[in-house]
Write a structure and sequence with these properties.
Helix content is 48%, strand content 13%. With 561 residues, the protein is of the alpha+beta class. The strands form three sheets. Strands 3, 4, 5, 7, 10 and 12 form a six-stranded antiparallel β-sheet that branches.
C-alpha cells in the first residue's frame, strides 16, 4: 500500500471518528439547544453565510433567530444582522455551505440556515480543518523526526490538550480553524525557506492574514512563524531577508486588501465605521491585576487543570531551550503574552469553554519540543517516566472532556467539588424511605412495604432533595423509577420530576402511563436537571394523581448522574 493511500485512509478514519464523537454530543442538531452546534459564538461566526446566500443582511432574516441562538449575533433595526465576530471562519466554511445548499436543493432537504443539516455542515467543516491541520503537523514533523516519532507526538498533542475538544465536540468555534491556519503557516514558511517558491509564500501570506482576521490578538504568532526552525541570529536575519522583499510585500498587501476589504465594508454597514470596536464593553479589564493564578489553575477552565499535558510540553520547551534558541524563545514569548492577555480579559475563563481555549492554536508549536525530546533523550529513567506522565495527562484531559457539559457549573471559580465530580463522575442513588411517611398509608404486600394513595390524594409522598447539600458533585440528569400497582379500572397518573425555588417551578418533566389493574409494573422517567446552587432550591420526584385514582407504589428511587 502506497504512502499516499495510507495518508488518505488515516485522514478519512480520523475525520469520521471525530464526526461520530461530535454527533454524540449534540441534541439532534436542534437549533436553540445549548448543546447544538449553532449556538452563541458559532452562530455569530457562521451568520455571514445565511445572510450572504439566503436572506441578505437586512429585512429578511427569520424572526427571533438571534434570540434562539442565544445572541451569537443580534438582529437590529429592520432585522439588520449585527455580529461582533469577523467573517474569517465563515470564509473557510463557505465551500461546505455552498455544497450543502446544492445538495439540499437537489434532494429537497429543508435548509433554512439553521436546519439540522446546517449544524452538520458546520461540524463537517470544522472537523475537516482540524484533521487537515493534524495531517500537516505530522507531515511537517516528518521533515525533522522519524515517522513514528512524528505521528506519536502529533497525536499526543492533539488528543492530550483541549485541541481535541474543539476538533470534535465544539468544531463550530474558531479554534480548530486557527489550529489549521497556524500549522499551515509553519509548513508554508518552512517549504518557502528551503525551496523559495512563490506558491509557498502566497500560502503563508493568505494563512497568516486569515489568522489575524479571525482573532486579531493572534497577530503575536508572527514571532514563532518567522522564527520556525531558526536557532541563531544569522539564521533569523537570512529568514527576514528572504521574507521581506519588495515583491513579497506587494503581494502581501494585495492579499490583505482582498481579505480585509469585505470586513471593513461590513463594519461600515453594521457599526457606521470602517474600523469598529465590535466587542464594545468586552475588554481587558484586568491589565493591572491579571488573574494569572485563576487562568492557570482554577477549576473554572484553568489551563493546567483541564489539560495538564501543557505543563509537560512547556517544561520540555524550557529544558531544550538551548537547542533552537530563537524558535523556542518565540514560543515561550507567545505563551507568556497569551497567558497575560487572557488573564487580563474581563472574564479569564472566556465563558462556556473547555479549559483555556486560547491555547488551542499554540498546541501545534509545542509538538516540536516534544518530538525533539523523544528523539534525543537517552536516559533510561527520564523517557519511561515522561511517557507515564503523558499517559496520565492525556487520560485526564479525555476524562474531563467527556464529562463536560458545555459550561462549568460550579458555585464559584474555585469550586473543586464540581471539578472532582467531573473527574470521577460517580452516580448517586437516592431511595424513598417508607419509614418516614404516614404509617397509615403503608400496607404490607407480599412481605414488602408499599405506599397507598387514594382518590383524594393529588400528590404522593416522594423524594425531595436540595442539590446544594449533596456531597458527590453537581448532577446533570436523573432517572426516576418506581413500581406501581393500580387498584382502579383506569390508570393515568404521572411520574414527575421537577425543581422549585420559592414555590416557583424552575423545570418540570413528567410521563403518563396506562397500566394493568392489580399488577405490579415498573415505570421510568429520564429527566435533565436544571442546576442551581441556592440553598432553597429543591428537586422533587413523586406521583401526580390528577385522575384521582387508587394505587400502590414501592421502590421509588432517583439515580443522579
Amino acid at each position: 500500500m502506497s504512502l499516499r493511500i495510507l495518508k488518505y485512509s488515516a485522514f478519512i478514519l480520523l475525520f469520521l471518528s471525530l464526526l461520530y464523537i461530535s454527533s454524540l454530543n449534540k441534541e439532534n442538531y436542534k437549533t436553540g439547544s445549548y448543546n447544538s452546534t449553532l449556538f452563541v459564538d458559532p452562530a455569530g461566526y457562521n451568520v455571514y453565510l445565511p445572510a450572504t446566500f439566503q436572506y441578505g443582511f437586512e429585512n429578511n432574516f427569520p424572526d427571533n433567530m438571534d434570540h434562539i441562538v442565544a445572541y451569537g449575533f443580534t438582529l437590529g433595526e429592520n432585522k439588520k444582522v449585527i455580529t461582533k465576530f469577523t467573517y474569517g471562519v465563515a470564509l473557510l466554511q463557505s465551500p461546505f455551505y455552498v455544497i450543502g445548499l446544492g445538495i439540499c436543493k437537489m434532494f429537497s432537504i429543508p435548509n433554512t440556515g439553521y436546519s439540522p443539516v446546517n449544524h452538520l455542515i458546520v461540524d463537517i467543516a470544522g472537523i475537516f480543518y482540524a484533521c487537515l491541520g493534524l495531517l500537516l503537523l505530522v507531515k511537517l514533523l516528518m521533515h525533522f523526526y522519524p515517522i513514528n516519532v512524528s505521528i506519536i507526538c502529533g497525536l499526543i498533542v492533539f488528543t492530550g490538550t483541549n485541541t481535541f475538544y474543539y476538533a470534535s465536540i465544539q468544531p463550530g468555534m474558531s479554534h480548530a480553524y486557527s489550529f489549521f491556519l497556524i500549522t499551515a503557516s509553519l509548513y508554508a514558511i518552512y517549504m518557502y525557506s528551503i525551496m523559495n517558491q512563490v506558491k509557498y509564500y502566497l500560502a503563508l501570506s493568505f494563512c497568516f492574514l486569515l489568522i489575524v482576521l479571525i482573532r486579531p490578538i493572534n497577530i503575536i504568532y508572527i514571532l514563532p512563524i518567522i522564527a520556525f526552525n531558526v536557532s541563531g541570529l544569522r539564521e533569523l536575519k537570512n529568514r527576514i531577508k528572504l521574507l521581506f522583499t519588495v515583491n513579497n510585500i506587494v503581494a502581501t498587501s494585495l492579499i490583505a486588501t482582498i481579505i480585509f476589504t469585505p470586513q471593513l465594508l461590513y463594519w461600515k454597514f453594521a457599526y457606521g465605521k470602517f474600523i469598529a470596536d465590535s466587542y464594545k464593553e468586552e475588554t481587558f479589564s484586568f491589565l493591572t491585576d491579571p488573574k494569572i493564578t485563576e487562568f492557570l489553575f482554577s477549576p473554572h477552565n484553568g489551563l493546567l487543570t483541564y489539560s495538564p499535558l501543557y505543563l509537560i510540553l512547556l517544561s520540555i520547551t524550557l529544558l531544550l531551550f538551548t537547542r533552537k534558541k530563537l524558535m523556542y524563545a518565540s514560543i515561550l514569548l507567545v505563551v507568556i503574552n497569551i497567558t497575560y492577555l487572557s488573564a487580563s480579559w474581563h472574564v479569564f475563563f472566556f465563558g462556556c469553554g473547555f479549559g483555556a481555549r486560547n491555547f488551542v492554536e499554540l498546541s501545534c508549536l509545542l509538538s516540536f519540543p516534544l518530538a525533539e525530546f523523544f528523539l534525543t533523550n537517552k536516559s533510561r529513567l527520564a523517557k519511561p517516566f515522561l511517557i507515564g506522565l503523558i499517559i496520565v495527562s492525556v487520560f485526564c484531559n479525555l476524562k474531563l472532556m467527556y464529562a463536560w457539559d458545555t459550561c462549568f457549573w460550579g458555585k464559584d471559580d474555585w469550586d473543586w467539588r464540581e471539578y472532582r465530580y467531573l473527574l470521577h463522575q460517580k452516580s448517586l442513588t437516592i431511595n424513598h424511605n417508607l419509614d418516614e411517611v404516614d404509617p397509615n398509608k403503608i400496607e404490607l404486600i407480599e412481605g414488602k412495604k408499599a405506599y397507598k394513595i387514594d382518590s383524594l390524594e393529588l400528590y404522593s409522598a416522594g423524594i425531595f432533595f436540595i442539590p446544594n447539600k449533596l456531597t458527590k458533585g453537581y448532577f446533570k440528569s436523573a432517572t426516576i423509577s418506581v413500581e406501581l400497582k393500580p387498584l382502579s379500572e383506569t390508570f393515568g397518573a404521572q411520574l414527575v420530576c421537577m425543581g422549585d425555588l420559592n414555590d416557583s417551578t424552575v423545570f418540570y418533566n413528567s410521563t403518563t402511563f396506562t397500566l394493568t389493574k392489580n399488577k405490579w409494573q415498573k415505570i421510568e422517567l429520564k429527566s435533565k436537571l436544571h442546576y442551581n446552587n441556592r440553598a432553597d432550591y429543591r428537586i422533587k420526584a413523586f406521583i401526580l394523581n390528577d385522575k384521582k385514582e387508587e394505587y400502590l407504589f414501592r421502590n421509588l428511587k432517583v439515580e443522579l448522574e
